[in-house]
UniProtKB/TrEMBL annotation, chains A, B:
This is sulfate adenylyltransferase. One of its GO terms (cellular component) is chloroplast. It is an enzyme of class 2 (transferase). Pfam families: ATP-sulfurylase, PUA_2. It comes from Zea mays (Maize). Belongs to the sulfate adenylyltransferase family. Pathway: Sulfur metabolism; hydrogen sulfide biosynthesis; sulfite from sulfate: step 1/3. It catalyses: sulfate + ATP + H(+) = adenosine 5'-phosphosulfate + diphosphate. Its EC number is 2.7.7.4. One of its GO terms (biological process) is sulfate assimilation. Residues 69-236 form the ATP-sulfurylase PUA-like domain. Gene3D superfamilies: HUPs (3.40.50.620), Sulfate adenylyltransferase (3.10.400.10). It comes from the Eukaryota. GO terms for molecular function: ATP binding; sulfate adenylyltransferase (ATP) activity.
Length: 451, 451
């Protein structure tokens, strides 16, 4: 009789309905999650959820674009060299000839991917020192227009001392970024090199310096003692060739898809573990409430994280299979759901990181973000307690500079209602009717969604 | 031939001249630093620098108040119960009878002092959780008007678990704050109790959790595991009876003094060690440049920190004696200098803390802040290096949310010019002419002003 539980979305902060760009009102499209037109590369990316055929591109008479939330900085950053005009070939040649080449690790390459598609808009590349300092101290960066955009985790590239000295001795301003087999991926230009104080970076990002933080061990402990920032230009879109690339939709592709469906609200939900019935209740209930508020076509962005995760998290390929199943079985409505992969690596930095998760979804067009208990949290690596207060993520998110435009949907608890014999929102006035895992209070605190 | 060196103010960010509240233009007053009218208590506080007689209050025909910079939140917070109307006596009676009494340590009492006079405006008392979280994550708090005010160090009061349980069991909403001899000092009302995660607080404030941080050892390590926030009302102004109380001018008293002098620019300079000739050059040069810019009467707020400092810093009483000497001997012009004590305790939290030092001076009326090398810095407690990058303080300060209105004056280096035979700004094009301590490069990095 063990049941799962989840925290479901409340509506403490809700926006007015967005306006539309077109005058002609059209009915919401009823197109399944199946194909997304890529404005950028002119290709079609088929989603293989197997739930519907691709919608014909010409199948709609009026291309009425809903006004999606504006990306941070006003314009979605795109750092992929265009094929047109020979730019891509020229960059490839230059990268092959540049005397200084930095080899990217797995996580570095994931950040190149993230940056190149504009998830971190308005960042134009790996952070220079002024961006790094603002991130560490303020979780936000002031743009050229004076406005703050949220930026809570450092997106930085390290370099060792010997290479740093060689670059500086040459007075180089551009370096090539290469993969593990020395193949050029990108060029970093107008570079700036500054000290990598790892202790300070870790303390300010995680609120602890205890040994055993997964991201730190993967990407910081053995990293170089210097950081190199600059403007990034990548030679071609990052691919993983793992059978999941069709799920890796860029913010531009997602925006295109939301516009094609005439979404007038996009609510994003990130899981790093499999979906279960509690989540499904949450997501369908959220859509229902948005409809009740007057939105005509709220679309769910079901957006599992695809980058580095710790060893005991469920692997991406399993999670994607499970997400497909949920759609195939109709637990979620494919017509109002887009499943895609968020390419960021995972910091497990709790209240600091959840801001990044939310901010990146603004850039992908989401104006609602569902936040659960202890988002991006984990157990303390050396003490018998959770690393973060389970409520801090939600609280910090709701107060974060640069996220004022995003509607935060804090969860309400769902559990198995033994009277109604179904998953439902937990009602504290008849708490004995509800069953969490094994019906214990302990499980209430340990069972729930891991975001 | 050992010479001292200092970093002197450059003018990278300068404001336009402030407007004045009155139509009648008057010459700047030429009144010595000697007496400050206290708007609040109606008393006069005599400065004992011995440099001039108090200016008669009626000595100026036109009380033209320069437009000083607005305090954070628009209004200077004042948490001292007024004597009028019996409020003070009533609060004293209530505090004596409240069942829950929290005993304040030395640093707690200094914070009560700081809060009560509005240095931390718009804070109305010890931080509640939403203020604490914003401080840790954003170094800034969003006010009721939606604007961010800077707030970089937590101003919090801890409580132990037994007392926390007792307070909560009673459902108490008000507690008395008492001194080491159990005498009531203040009442904290509409209280909120939340967890004191010391590790996270330390990591996010200092960027390290290394043992040996002076403030941590003094005020956090043995503090309670809970924090208690609320609205503060203090029974009477905090006094120390150490012969220096006349220097402890509140922000209101300082503003009154600046207005009385018709200051149209106030530039603040904080030292936690004695003034030397390099500092004096810095301060007179700053005034000269402000005059050249068109300000009619820039006034220096020479503002040593008076609260908790680490054991090897020079004691406050010595520093004040030395500050008096500098004025007596005419090294600084008493007519354009106000010497007062900033009552805050010292965190030694570098780039995080310097924001607090600057923000508090806005509340006291300063619109220029002089920032030196490695402000609020110290040696790493366990490693052979400085805890902070010497340039980060200046950089972080110049980018900090909520400090946009403050003009940051970064230092230029001064050293002994052997050709001119006087202290002067360091000129790298003839660097061999300049002498730092013992003429070594090492001393250049270790000699300088400690801010």
């Amino acid at each position: 009789m063990a049941m799962q539980a989840a925290f479901l979305a409340g509506f403490s902060q809700l926006a007015a309905q967005p306006s539309r760009d077109c005058a002609v009102a059209v009915a919401p499209t009823r197109v399944a999650v199946a194909a997304v037109g890529s404005a950028k590369v002119g290709a079609r990316v088929g989603l293989k959820a197997g739930i519907a055929a691709p919608a014909p591109a010409a199948g709609r008479g009026v291309r009425c674009r809903a006004s999606l939330i504006e990306p941070d900085g006003g314009q979605l950053v795109d750092l992929v060299a265009p094929e047109e005009g020979g730019r891509r070939a020229a960059l490839r040649r230059e990268a092959a000839e540049l005397p200084h080449r930095l080899r990217l690790g797995r996580v570095d390459k994931e950040w190149v991917h993230v940056l190149s598609e504009g998830w971190a808009s308005p960042l134009q590349g790996f952070m220079r020192e002024h961006e790094f300092l603002q991130t560490l101290h303020f979780n936000a960066i002031r743009g050229q227009d004076g406005r703050m955009v949220n930026m809570s985790v450092p997106i930085v590239l390290s370099v060792g001392d010997a290479q740093r000295r060689a670059i500086q001795a040459d007075g180089a301003t551009r370096v090539a970024l290469v993969d593990e087999r020395d193949r050029p991926i990108a060029v970093l230009s107008d570079i700036e090199i500054y000290k990598h104080n790892k202790e300070e970076r870790i303390a300010r990002t995680w609120g602890t310096t205890a040994p055993g933080l997964p991201y730190v061990e993967e990407a910081i402990t053995n990293a170089g003692d210097w950081l190199i920032g600059g403007d990034l230009e990548i030679i071609e879109p990052i691919k993983y060739n793992d059978g999941l690339d069709q799920y890796r939709l860029s913010p531009a592709q997602l925006r295109e898809e939301f516009a094609r469906r005439n979404a007038d609200a996009v609510f994003a939900f990130q899981l790093r573990n499999p979906v279960h019935n509690g989540h499904a209740l949450l997501m369908t209930d959220t859509r229902k409430r948005l409809l009740e508020m007057g939105y005509k076509n709220p679309v769910l962005l079901l957006h599992p994280l695809g980058g580095f995760t710790k060893a005991d998290d469920v692997p991406l390929s399993w999670r994607m299979k499970q997400h497909e199943k949920v759609l195939e079985e109709g637990v979620l409505n494919p017509e109002s759901t887009v499943v895609a992969i968020f390419p960021s690596p995972m910091h497990y930095a709790g209240p600091t990181e959840v801001q990044w998760h939310a901010k990146a979804r603004i850039n992908a067009g989401a104006n609602f973000y569902i936040v659960g208990r202890d988002p991006a949290g984990m157990s303390h690596p050396t003490e018998k307690r959770d690393l973060y207060d389970a409520d801090h993520g939600k609280k910090v998110l709701s107060m974060a500079p640069g996220l004022e435009r995003l509607n935060i949907l804090p969860f309400k608890v769902a559990a198995y209602d033994t009277k109604q014999k179904k998953m439902d929102f937990f009602d504290p006035s008849r708490k004995d009717d509800f069953l969490f895992i094994s019906g214990t209070k302990v499980s209430f605190h340990s069972c729930c969604v891991t975001l």
